[in-house]
Design goal:
14 helices, membrane, transmembrane helix, two-stranded antiparallel ribbon, globular, mainly alpha, ABC transporter involved in vitamin B12 uptake, BtuC, Branched-chain amino acid ABC transporter, permease protein
């Protein structure tokens, strides 16, 4: 019982400590480092949103920069032209982005694989060019400037935006944890594993994927709504195809489907170019080479690599000593037990009163 409680509360305590440490860092560093920290937090927030679609549901999108742009322009237009408070415009950005996510999901999720990827790419380009042709509302090629920055607990400017982004990241992480462990998360994983099998147990794959697209778009819209005041000026070219690639990289590099994956990926993708800035024109070359090496060494991402190391260490601790027999508790350990299992399909009884135990897999030495 103590180990079970520790395994449940220890990660929460670690995330809480990490959030406090990030807020302290944002409150103490100066100048450009505050801006970099805010960028990493926004990348993590957008990655958490994309992780709902890519990690839980298994649907690839290369057009999430479009939702990022929709969130940013919604905040910029509502605060600048409509006179709204940022605290009203920011949730409105999530609602508008989620609505566009629904509009895109209805046609896009009826196709799979490369066709879905192409539709999302086209969506990103459509949003970018619609903003260019938006006239006075979007500012056209010149974009919008003079976006007012909110304050958090009396702290304004880039520092306030960075701290607000950090708070949003850890709130989104908590929401993602609740979603992934709940009924909807189980349905999303079932659709990811097999749409046919999920339909056989009463799940509507199209509805599940549509909800995942809406939630994903809304969270990315929230990130975009914070990007606008952080940058102070936005143009359509801030939301090009490469921005979508960065979102996908943050999720896949960190570990798609894992809780910590987008956070770890955002730290790597957001900070590594800054650490390599002294290499000047060779910076992108080394950055790309590093990403290839990491993806080759850890196809499940950084979170998957850390989890594998932890399992290997635990397996060595639990492995029986040479020449020693396994204890009765070890022999009784199992990962699944079915007792009197019965399954019917309409009037047909396929299985009746079946019982079995599934033992744990043998340890790999």
């Amino acid at each position: 019982m103590n180990k079970r409680l520790a395994s449940r509360w220890l990660p929460l305590a670690l995330y809480a400590l990490l959030a406090v440490a990030a807020l302290v860092l944002a409150a103490t560093v100066n100048g450009y480092y505050v801006f970099v920290l805010g960028n990493v937090a926004l990348l993590a927030l957008a990655g958490i949103g994309l992780n709902v679609l890519l990690g839980l549901t298994g649907q690839m999108s290369f057009g999430h920069a479009g939702f990022y742009a929709i969130g940013a322009y919604t905040v910029a237009i509502l605060t600048g032209q409509a006179g709204w408070s940022f605290w009203l415009a920011w949730p409105a950005a999530a609602v508008v982005a989620g609505a566009f996510g629904l509009l895109l999901a209805l046609p896009a999720l009826r196709v799979k694989g490369p066709y879905l990827a192409m539709i999302t790419i086209a969506f990103g380009f459509i949003v970018e060019h619609a903003l260019i042709e938006g006239g006075d509302v979007t500012g056209g090629q010149n974009g919008l400037m003079g976006i007012v920055q909110p304050s958090l607990a009396g702290i304004g400017g880039d520092r306030g935006v960075a701290m607000l982004a950090i708070v949003a990241v850890f709130v989104a992480l908590a929401a993602y944890a609740l979603l992934s462990r709940g009924t909807w998360g189980a349905a999303m994983r079932a659709v990811k594993d097999s749409e046919t099998a999920s339909e056989s147990i009463g799940i509507n794959p199209l509805m599940v994927k549509t909800v995942a697209f809406m939630v994903s778009a809304a969270v990315v819209g929230l990130a975009g709504g914070l990007y606008a005041p952080q940058a102070g000026m936005i143009t359509p070219h801030n939301f090009n195809f490469m921005q979508s690639i960065l979102f996908v990289l943050a999720v896949t590099l960190g570990g798609a489907g894992s809780l910590a994956g987008p956070l770890l990926g955002a730290v790597v993708v957001g900070l590594l170019p800054e650490l390599l800035s002294s290499l000047e024109e060779y910076r992108l070359l080394f950055f790309g080479a590093f990403l290839l090496v990491v993806l080759w060494a850890a196809p499940d991402g950084v979170a998957g690599l850390l989890s594998r190391w932890r399992r290997n260490g635990a397996g060595q601790e639990l492995a029986p000593r040479a020449g020693g027999g396994m204890s009765a508790a070890g022999r009784a350990r199992r990962v699944l037990r079915a007792d009197a299992l019965t399954m019917t399909f309409g009037g047909v009884r396929a299985v009746q009163s079946v019982s079995f135990d599934v033992p744990p897999p043998p340890s790999r030495r």
